[in-house]
Every structure is written in structure tokens, then in C-alpha cells.
């Protein structure tokens, strides 16, 4: 018996709404976003009058507070923009509502990806007896739960962790980004970073790369990026000597991104045009295909997992745990492609873990701090089956 | 003793103004464009009160007529946009003024590059006893005069003509176009075309390419394009069996153009953005570096010429005539780079040929129909020295 408020009606919000609606633990569901008509469309697609909708500007705490006061949810699932994490957390504190998100806070004017802003809410959530669950998508999210599962069952000491994220899908367009192109371009153009022997080592943007083999997919160029779950994982698993994150990009994709920067269309400052002030990257977003429109013709799979080396019973062992997700199947079920699907399913399942009292505690938590077993026991039937391999060549 | 009206205050207009001002045959000079302040800047740079300025919208015949009636020029040098050739020719006919341009008319909504529109003015110019000189830049322009010179002095029969245009300059920017990016992108994305055995043969855009060696530069990838002087040259030199035009592009430049198309920024239709209607290519033009701004750090040379094979005294011979122009030197003299310089110098010299009665005749003429000797005798001292080579490997 739980009331849930979902904020955000993009691809991920669509998946969360579908999955939450199927779960009887959620008795009342509200979907809210800046544009109510988007929420109405999703609610209609889910059907059965399961979902109420509302308009809310997630940048404005007072609007969020008014909505929470009237709907009185037990938990908010925040799948809005990462710029909006803090306003939503503020409103949760004010209204006594628990909180879950899939991506950490990032200021609007620079690409940061650090937990410090949200970890700073620890005492306030604790004092109010509320739970905030950070980063419960796939990566961050399942990637950290996989790591916790490995630590609990297969290792005495995790020493080397490589999170590997491959999208081998093909959407048939010359160029398109899989989610908000602004966030996508920011992520890729920032410096890389990884953890080794207690230190963070900085790299140039996409400086380090490697050809890695993904199950059912094959070899793909994989680039070392900084990704937010590295920050919490090395803190929560202090035996880790080295932690890295790899993501695949095709040469064509990277060429397009480079040119977009060269020609000035990735600029986030205003440009004078016929007396108007226009941010080039915002205008580009209006010209590029809408990420939500990619689903219909998206073929192929994603493959995301953890490759781990460490010690068990005094011996070194290797371990690879991953999920492959099919774009077409994801689209058939929810009307969105696998990149949104793999983020939305864990968010809905994490909220269910909380609603059922399987994940609990006052304060701010990263998902690897909870018991991974009940989550992973259900993840497969929720649409994201996972596979384990032992003592193989990790390539990394 | 001649009065000249220059229309157009871009890079080419700047060069024409500088060169015309140095020539005593031009007693009165007026420079006019849509933005009078640009004309004033150029006039100030030339100095000595040599140049008057005026505002005119070259899309509007009545404005052009009013300006010509008040200034009463003997000849107009049209270095405005190719969209505006016909309105300017109309005004010349109405006011009894002779005409010279550097690029043939092209409708605004499609890339055409055909002389038919302007050749249709033949009878009207003839009846009024006026001269219209078409395509008196470098290519078209000097390229056709080189061909006429070859036909006059070195060949009984020109059989194979390859016009080769190399820009080996480096402006130090990741990407920029050398002139109006809109025209530049249109030219390159259209189909290629060349003449062979009485027929025009169509190719895909940039489908045919070849590595050609340019003097003082070396090997450069050169792409077969359609270029307007081919149309008049095969008509005026009917012994020609094959005529082609080649232009160099670096891989990086082509990659940038391809991506600009892929991401939709080359679109010339309107896109909805925050309630405004914006043409992506027009917005891109506002974000890209202004071609006029490239001059300051432009290094390297251009090399444009004609490679000809044919018969002289019953024997086959080969011939290469070309000019190399240095970006830095062009900038030092006129404040613009070599691409504008090589177009503006021939326009000013062509107008001087007319003013001195060396080129004359009532009607519409392409430059190869005049005597090439007096023009080429002066071209070197005007800043574009040329070189001849005989009986060499033409590579084409």
C-alpha cells in the first residue's frame, strides 16, 4: 500500500509509469511534468485509469510542495532532469516524502557529476526519518547493485572493478542522441577520470580506449569516461584498488560530436541572431531527432555489466555479471527504446523495494548500501534478466 | 576617364575597391551595398577620398535605378550575391549602364549555376549598344581567359581542358568556409557534371576524385565539380572533346560538411524554435566564423589554372597555365585573403579593359570572347602573376 509520485515524462518516465502501474503495491500513482499533455499521453497508453496526471515545474520548490501536499505521496520517483534533483529533495524534506532518483545532481552551467551536493542532505533526511535513494537506474543503479551482489556472494575482497556499458543498437538515422542531446554531449566532452590506489586520475576527453567483447554483440571500441557510481562504490567498497567505467561509441558518432563542437553548435552561451539571443546547443536540440522518436526503428541490444577481479578464499578470481536488453522488445512493451527501458525498470523496482520495506533506513543512500538479493531476485521478471560468468578473461 | 559603380561590400568588394582606386582611368568611384557602414569602412581603408559610398538593396530594381540615375556610372561592377545579377542587369538596361560580374545568376531557392538566364539578355544589351561582361573573377574569369590565350597562341585545336582549383591555405580554425557558407555548402552538395563528346555527364556529389599535384604545394585530393565556365567554354571552343573542373577539399572539410548535413544544420526550410521560425543554415552562418575574419591568420597559397591537351602543327601537346596566390600577401595589401583577392583583382582589371576600349562590343559576353592578351599582359602587375609550362605530365 503505497502512493507514488513520478516526476518527469520523457522516455524514462514512460517506462517507470508502465512498470509502476503493473505493481499492485502502488495503490495510487501520479505522473507530473512541465507539460501535462505528455503525462496524459503516457497515462492513456498505460490505460485502466491507473495514473493521475499533473503539471509541475520541477525547478520551483513551491510548486513541488503544493503538488506533494495535495497528493501526499509516500515516495517520489524523480526522473526529471538532473538539474532538478535538489529542488525535488528540498520539497520532499518540507513535505515528509521519501525520494528516489536515477542520476545525480548537476548544476546547469557546468558538467560536474558529483554526489557532494546530494550527500550534503544526509543529516536532514536522517533527522526527518526519511529515505533518499540515489542513482537507482541502470548505471548508476544496477551497476552498483551488481557490485554489491559480487561482494556479498563471490568475493572476500573486490580489487578491480570495470563497469562496461555497450549500446550496439542501430536507430537508422545518420545521427541522433539516445537521450537529451545536451546532457549526452556534456557527458562526452568532459575529461575522463578513474580511481586507482586511493587517487582519482584524470584523462583527456575519451583519451583512453580499448576494444572490448560484449556478449551476443562482439567487439566494440570502448572509451573510459568518468561515471558517477565510481565515487560511491570506492567509498562503500574500500578494498577496491582500481575502478573504471567504459562506454562504447562508434567512430561515426564521435566524429559527429567533434564536428558539432568545431562548428560551434555545442556552445551553451547565447549567440546573437536577427536580434534574438539563442543558445546554439538548445537550437541543435530542436533540429536533431527527438530521442523519444528513435524507438520505432531501433534494432539491436544494449549490454551493461561489471567485470570484477578480486580474492575469494585466498585465491584470485574473475567475475562478469551483466544484462543484455533488446531495443525492439523494450519498444514493444513500453513504446521506448532500451536506453530508457534499462533506466526506468530499476527505478520502478527500487521504489517497490522501499514500499515493501526491503530497502529502508533514514538518510541518503546509494543503492549498493542496500541488500542486493531481493532486488536482483526480481529484476529478471521485471524485464532485465542478468547473467553471471566466472573465471573468464575480463580483457581489462 | 570612366565612372564606376561597385555593388557589394564583402571580401571581393573590398579587393575591387582597392584595385579600382589605384587605377587612374577610374575618375569617379562609388561603392554601394545593403549596409552603408561596410562601404564606409572600406572607403576609409582605401583612403584619399577616392571612394563615395551609398546604401542600396540590390534585390530592388527601383533602388538600383535611382542610384544609377543619380551617380551616372559608365559601368557597374557587380560583386553582390549571385541572386542579384538579374535585378542589376535590369537596372543597367534601364539606365544605359554597362555591366560586369564575377558569378552567374542563381535562383535563391535552388543551386543552378547556368548561364541561360543571363544569356537571355543578349538582344536587349545589343539593342541598347551596351556591354555585359559575365564571369570576370578568377574561376570563372581568368580560367576562361587562360583558355582563350592557349587557343590563340599555343593550340590549333584544344581537345581536353581541365580547370584545377586548389586552396592550400590554412586559417587555423577547426572549420570555416572561405566565402558565404550558404553558397559554399550549396555548391558542394549538388551533383557533379562534366562535358564529353558533345554531352553533359552527371556524377554524384563529389563522386569523382583524383590526387593532383599543384606547383609549390604538392599533391591534393581534387574533386570533380560542375563549374559555370565549362558551359560557355565548350560553346566558344567547339574543338573541345572533354572539359572538367576540379577543386581540392581536405578530408576534414568534407567530414564537417557531411556532418552539417546529417545533423540537419544545412536545411534551408524553417524549423520551429521557441515559437520562432528559423532556417538552420542561416543560423549556422551566424555561429560559424565570418569568412571576412579569416584573413588575419591565413597562411599558404591558392593555385588555380588550366591543364590543356590538344594539337599544334599536327602534333599533340600539353600545356599548363596557372597562378599561385599567397593568402598572407593578399591580406597585407587589401585586408582580405586570397580567395577574395583572386576574384576581385580580375573584376577590377576587366572593368579597366572595358574603360580603355580594349574589350568592347554590344551584347552579353563571356570573358573568353575578348582578346586575352592585354588582360594577361597586366594581370601580373595587378597582383596575380601567371606561369606557363609546356609538354608536361598533366595527370588528368
Describe the protein in words.
Two copies of one chain form a homodimer. The first copy, chain A, has 396 residues and is α/β, with parallel strands linked by helices. In chain A, 35% of the residues lie in helices and 28% in strands. Chain A has helices at residues 11-21, 36-46, 61-71, 85-95, 116-119, 122-127, 142-153, 181-189, 229-236, 251-262, 280-287, 327-334, 338-355, 372-379, and strands at residues 2-7, 26-33, 51-55, 75-78, 98-101, 131-134, 157-167, 192-196, 199-203, 209-214, 218-225, 242-248, 271-273, 276-278, 301-312, 315-326, 363-366, 387-390. In chain A, the strands form three sheets. In chain A, strands 7, 8, 9, 10, 11, 12, 15, 16 and 18 form a nine-stranded mixed β-sheet that branches. In chain A, strands 3-2-1-4-5-6-17 form a seven-stranded parallel β-sheet, sandwiched between helices. In chain A, α1 (11-21) crosses α2 (36-46), α7 (142-153) packs across α14 and α13 (338-355) packs across α14 (372-379). Chain A is globular. The mean pLDDT of chain A is 94. The interface between A and B is medium-sized, with 23 and 23 residues.
Low-confidence stretches of chain A: none
Please report the distance between the alpha carbons of the first and last residues of chain A.
45 Å
Mean of pLDDT of chain A = 94
SSE-based structural type of chain A: alpha/beta
* Quaternary assembly: homodimer
Number of helical segments of chain A?
Answer: 14
Given the C-alpha coordinates, what overall shape of chain A results? globular
What is the total tally of β strands of chain A? 18
Major sheet details of chain A? 9 strands, mixed
What is the rounded Rg of chain A?
20 Å
Instruction: State which percent range the strand residues of chain A make up.
Output: 25-35%
Query: What is the helical fraction of chain A, as a range of percent?
Result: 25-40%
Largest interface: A-B, 23 and 23 residues
Amino acid at each position: 500500500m503505497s502512493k507514488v509520485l513520478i516526476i518527469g515524462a520523457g522516455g524514462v518516465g514512460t517506462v517507470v509509469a508502465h512498470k509502476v502501474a503493473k505493481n499492485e503495491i502502488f495503490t495510487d500513482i501520479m505522473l507530473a511534468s512541465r507539460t501535462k499533455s505528455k503525462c496524459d499521453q503516457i497515462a492513456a497508453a498505460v490505460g485502466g485509469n491507473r495514473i493521475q496526471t499533473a503539471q509541475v515545474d520541477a525547478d520551483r520548490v513551491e510548486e513541488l510542495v503544493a503538488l506533494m501536499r495535495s497528493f501526499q505521496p509516500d515516495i517520489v520517483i524523480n526522473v526529471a532532469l538532473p538539474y532538478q534533483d535538489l529542488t525535488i529533495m528540498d520539497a520532499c524534506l518540507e513535505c515528509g516524502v521519501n525520494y528516489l532518483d536515477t542520476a545525480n545532481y548537476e548544476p546547469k552551467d557546468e558538467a560536474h557529476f558529483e554526489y557532494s551536493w546530494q550527500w550534503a542532505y544526509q543529516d536532514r533526511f536522517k533527522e526527518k526519518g526519511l529515505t533518499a535513494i540515489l542513482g537507482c537506474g541502470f548505471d548508476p543503479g544496477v551497476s552498483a547493485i551488481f557490485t554489491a551482489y559480487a561482494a556479498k556472494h563471490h568475493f572476500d575482497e573486490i580489487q578491480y572493478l570495470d563497469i562496461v556499458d555497450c549500446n550496439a543498437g542501430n536507430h537508422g538515422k545518420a545521427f541522433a542522441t539516445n537521450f537529451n542531446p545536451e546532457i549526452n554531449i556534456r557527458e562526452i566532452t568532459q575529461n575522463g577520470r578513474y580511481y586507482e590506489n586511493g587517487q582519482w586520475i584524470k584523462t583527456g576527453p575519451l583519451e583512453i580506449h580499448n576494444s572490448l567483447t560484449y556478449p551476443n554483440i562482439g567487439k566494440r571500441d570502448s572509451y573510459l569516461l568518468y561515471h558517477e557510481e565510481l565515487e560511491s562504490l570506492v567509498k562503500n567498497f574500500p578494498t577496491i584498488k582500481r575502478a573504471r567505467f567504459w562506454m562504447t561509441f562508434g567512430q561515426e558518432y564521435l566524429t559527429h560530436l567533434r564536428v558539432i563542437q568545431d562548428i560551434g553548435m555545442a556552445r551553451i552561451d547565447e549567440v546573437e541572431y536577427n536580434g534574438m539571443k539563442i543558445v546554439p546547443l538548445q537550437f541543435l536540440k530542436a533540429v536533431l531527432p527527438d530521442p523519444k522518436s528513435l524507438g520505432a526503428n531501433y534494432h539491436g541490444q544494449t549490454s551493461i555489466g561489471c567485470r570484477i577481479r578480486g580474492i575469494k578464499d585466498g585465491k584470485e578470481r574473475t567475475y562478469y555479471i551483466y544484462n543484455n536488453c533488446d531495443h525492439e522488445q523494450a519498444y514493444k512493451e513500453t513504446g521506448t527504446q532500451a536506453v530508457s527501458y534499462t533506466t526506468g525498470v530499476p527505478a520502478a523496482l527500487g521504489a517497490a523495494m522501499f514500499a515493501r520495506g526491503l530497502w529502508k533506513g533514514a538518510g541518503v543512500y546509494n543503492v549498493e548500501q542496500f541488500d542486493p538479493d531481493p532486488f536482483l531476485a526480481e529484476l529478471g521478471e521485471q524485464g532485465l534478466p542478468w547473467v553471471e560468468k566466472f573465471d573468464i578473461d575480463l580483457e581489462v
